[in-house]
Design goal:
The structure holds 2 protein chains of 2 kinds.
Chain A lengths: L4 E2 H14 L15 H13 L4
Chain B lengths: L4 H10 L14 E4 L4 E4 L16 E4 L5 E4 L2 H13 L6 H11 L5 H11 L6 H5 L4
Antiparallel strand pairs in B: 1-2, 3-4
Helix pairs in contact in B: 2-3, 2-4
Chain lengths: ~50, ~130
C-alpha cells in the first residue's frame, strides 16, 4: 500500500477535482438497491437519533 | 472488509459498537449508540480477491487513526459490475462521474478490472462515452 496521505491533503484534492468539474454536491445514492442488512443498519442509526 | 472478522468484532464490542437489534434484522452491520456511526463488514477479502491491495489508498486522520479506501479504478469497476448485472442502471452514471473526476488513473488496470467485474461485457470506452 502507498504512504498515508494527510486528511487535509486528501480533502483539498477532492475539492480541487470538484471545482475543475464545476460540480456542486455529489448526488447521493438513490437507495433503491439497498440490502436488507443495509436498511436495518440505517434504521438503527435513525432510531439512535443520528442522520446519515 | 477484514480477514480477521472475529478479532475485529471483538474489538468493536470493546469500543462500544453493537449490532442493530430487533426482529428480522440479520445484519452485517455495526452501530455505535453514542457516535451514531454505523458500518457493515461486507467481505473477508477485497472485492473477492480481485482488487490489487497495493492500490488501496490510505488517509491519515492523525490521532484518530488511518482509514483505507479502495482504489478509484476498483470503485469504477464495482459500479460497472452492478450496472452490468441489470439491477442498478444508475450505477453507470456514478462510474462516469468517478472517471471524470480522476485524471491520473491506471487505464490498463481500469480496463482489466471493468472486464472482470462485468464478465467481459463492458470496458473503459463504455464508461468514457459521456465522461468528458
Amino acid at each position: 500500500m502507498s504512504e498515508p496521505v494527510p486528511f487535509k491533503t486528501f480533502a483539498a484534492d477532492i475539492e480541487r477535482r470538484k471545482l475543475a468539474r464545476s460540480l456542486g454536491p455529489v448526488p447521493r445514492n438513490s437507495g433503491r438497491h439497498r440490502t436488507e442488512s443495509k436498511r436495518a443498519l440505517l434504521k438503527a442509526i435513525e432510531e439512535l437519533g443520528g442522520k446519515w | 472488509m477484514t480477514a480477521w472478522q472475529e478479532s475485529f468484532e471483538q474489538t468493536l464490542r470493546v469500543l462500544g459498537f453493537v449490532r442493530p437489534s430487533g426482529a428480522g434484522r440479520m445484519t452485517r452491520g455495526w452501530v455505535h449508540p453514542d457516535l451514531w456511526l454505523g458500518f457493515e463488514v461486507v467481505s473477508s477479502s477485497l472485492m473477492e480477491g480481485r482488487a490489487d491491495r497495493g492500490r488501496v489508498r490510505l488517509v491519515d486522520f492523525g490521532t484518530d487513526g488511518i482509514a483505507c479506501f479502495v482504489s478509484v479504478e476498483d470503485l469504477i469497476a464495482d459500479r460497472m459490475g452492478q450496472y452490468a448485472s441489470g439491477s442498478a442502471p444508475d450505477m453507470l452514471g456514478q462510474a462516469r462521474e468517478l472517471l471524470a473526476l480522476h485524471d491520473q488513473l491506471d487505464v490498463d488496470y481500469l480496463e482489466r478490472r471493468i472486464r472482470e467485474e462485468t464478465l467481459g461485457e463492458y470496458g473503459t470506452p463504455d464508461v468514457r462515452a459521456r465522461a468528458v
